[in-house]
């Protein structure tokens, strides 16, 4: 199992709905290519093209290619958006752990737009929060 290197990261405190939240700002770097393989695997399993993912992430398609082949690192913002879209934890995406229960969704159209992916990500974030709350109360 490979570990993330989070050197040169900055902790940021902010409030969400009157709750203090801590987050990291910077880039995650990881030895090996687990995150690259996982990103590509998640995208392909969801039948999302690089272009569609790039539009959702508001980056160029070439950036997706570079992320998938390991020549670019993921920013914290991209990690959050990718994890919300695919319903996975950042630790799964980064290869720190292997636990992943996919949130299945199906499309009836080939013309998936960025707005569709944003809606899916919002629903997935809610579902992941419900899973987390259920784990905390022991359900």
Care to count the β-strands? 4
Question: CATH topology, anyone?
Answer: 434 Repressor (Amino-terminal Domain)
| Helical percentage | 40-55%
Gross morphology: globular
**Could you name the CATH homologous superfamily?**
lambda repressor-like DNA-binding domains
**Largest sheet composition:** 2 strands, antiparallel
Write the topology of this structure.
Blueprint: E1 4-5, E2 10-16, E3 19-25, E4 29-30, H1 34-45, H2 50-57, H3 61-69, H4 76-86, H5 90-93, H6 114-137
Antiparallel strand pairs: 1-4, 2-3
How would you describe this structure to a colleague?
The chain has 139 residues and is an alpha+beta fold. It has one domain: lambda repressor-like DNA-binding domains (434 Repressor (Amino-terminal Domain)). Helix content is 49%, strand content 13%. The chain has 6 helices and 4 strands; from the N terminus they run ββββαααααα. Strand 2 (10-16) and strand 3 form a beta hairpin. Helix 2 (50-57) packs across helix 6. The chain starts with a strand and ends with a helix. 24% of the residues are buried.
């Amino acid at each position: 199992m490979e570990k993330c290197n989070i050197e040169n990261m900055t902790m940021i405190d902010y409030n969400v709905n009157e709750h203090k939240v801590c987050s990291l700002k910077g880039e995650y770097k990881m030895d090996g290519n687990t995150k690259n393989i996982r990103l590509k695997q998640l995208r392909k399993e969801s039948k999302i093209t690089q272009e569609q993912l790039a539009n959702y992430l508001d980056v160029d398609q070439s950036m997706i290619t570079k992320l998938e082949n390991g020549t670019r690192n993921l920013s914290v913002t991209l990690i959050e958006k990718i994890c919300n879209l695919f319903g996975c934890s950042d630790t799964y995406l980064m290869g720190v752990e292997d636990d992943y229960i996919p949130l299945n969704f199906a499309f009836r159209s080939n013309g998936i737009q960025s707005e569709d992916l944003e809606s899916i990500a919002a629903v997935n974030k809610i579902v992941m929060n419900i899973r987390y709350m259920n784990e905390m109360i022991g359900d």
